[in-house]
Structure formats: structure tokens, C-alpha cells
Amino acid sequence: MKPYVVCHMMGPLDGQLLVEQWTPSTGQPYDALIAEYDRVHEQFGADAWISGRAVGAEFADGKPHSPIPIPSVERPVHVARSGADEYAVLIDPHGKLHWTGPKTYGAATIVLLGRDVPDAHLAELSSDGISYVTAESDKIDLVHALETLNTKFGIKRLILEGGAHTNAEFLEAGLVDEISLLLFPAICGRTSSQTIFGTRPDGLADRLRLSMISSEVRQAGVMHLRYKVDYAWKNKGG
């Protein structure tokens, strides 16, 4: 059984991803926008949040430091800490991220890795008190990974806060149960800026339908929109 997944994002009217590129259009400081986003994040009461490698790189400020000699390591799962109040799950298929401790932004860290990540990197994570889950192939099976997060770590509600690529991968795999969007009264207008949900070769239009859960006007004209994601609408005659 996988956790309930909420994709929680923020953006301007044209859906651009990088907050610093559209902040000036709001007339508010960057920190004020992030604080509003964080307030809603906390209201979900999730057990964990998950992001891709690019977001993880913002927090992983260490350098390679595997133990010598390299001890035997656990595969496919190493549980460094169970029962944490909150987990930070980072997707790092090739083992490029390095930490200096067991937490990311105050949450116990779990790393999702590809099959071919060397034992030296796993030993490094273990010595740092970091949990990890390795895949059965070089590509991470998100369905299996989420089931493992539920069974091994007790994660029942997971907030997806990915970049455009990660968000699209989760939607394409049918793993997002709900979308939470803070829509700010702003326009980015950049021609090359990434959007909140990245593009896929075949698109996503014929894969899902959205239905409104709720809408709320918050401070400074911000709209909080919540949608249920339905992947089975074709089978219902929709």
C-alpha cells in the first residue's frame, strides 16, 4: 500500500516554477511567499515530503566521505531511524548527493537510489545516520519505492514538492492523489522558464481528470486550490 500523495506547489497565473523569477510581480518579499506556502504545508500534517535530486542539492552540502575500509551494507533497504516525526525523502538515482548529518531541513532523511549506486556511497549514508532504499534497476520504480516508504517507515501521507520533471513522473505513474496549488496574483512571463508540471512525450491530458475539493482566498489575494486526481475516469464512461 502506498502513502496518500499530495502534490503541493505554488505559482503565478502562468504556472511558472521558479519563485524568484515571479516574486517582483507580487509586490511581496520572497520570504513572505515561502512562509505562506509553508503554512499550508504544515496544515496537511504529513508524515514526510519528497523531492527530486535538484531540490535535494539545495540541502545536501556535504562532500564524498565514505568509511575506509568499506563495511558490508544493507540492500535494498536500510532503516537508520524508524518512527520519526517527519521524513525528508530525496530521489537521487545515481548517488550524487552528500550530507553532513542525518537530517534535511529538520526532518530525518531517506534517499531513494538506483541499483548501481556503489557500496561506498551506501556506507557513507549509513554512517551519517541516513536511511535509504535502492531500486532493482538503474531507474527507480516509484510505485515500489512508495510502497516501501509505507511498509518500512510507516509513511501514510506524503507531500510531493518536486520540480517539473519529478511532478510529471509522479502524475504519469498515477501516484498523485491530490494537487494543492497556491496561486499567487502574479505573472512571470519568461519564455524559457519551467512550469510546475513538466512536459512528457505524450502529455498528460488523456491520463487524468481533476475535480475540485476546495478553494480558499488567503492573505494578499492568494488562492489555495485543492483538486482530487482521478486516473480511472475512462473506465467510468467519462
TrEMBL record:
Keywords, A to Z?
NADP, Oxidoreductase
Q: Its pathway?
A: Cofactor biosynthesis; riboflavin biosynthesis
Q: Where is the Bacterial bifunctional deaminase-reductase C-terminal domain?
A: 3-216
What InterPro entries does the database record attribute to this sequence? DHFR-like_dom_sf, RibDG_C, Riboflavin_Biosynth_HTPR
Keyword check for Transmembrane helix, yes or no.
Answer: no
This chain belongs to which protein, by name? Riboflavin biosynthesis pyrimidine reductase
This protein's species is: Bradyrhizobium yuanmingense
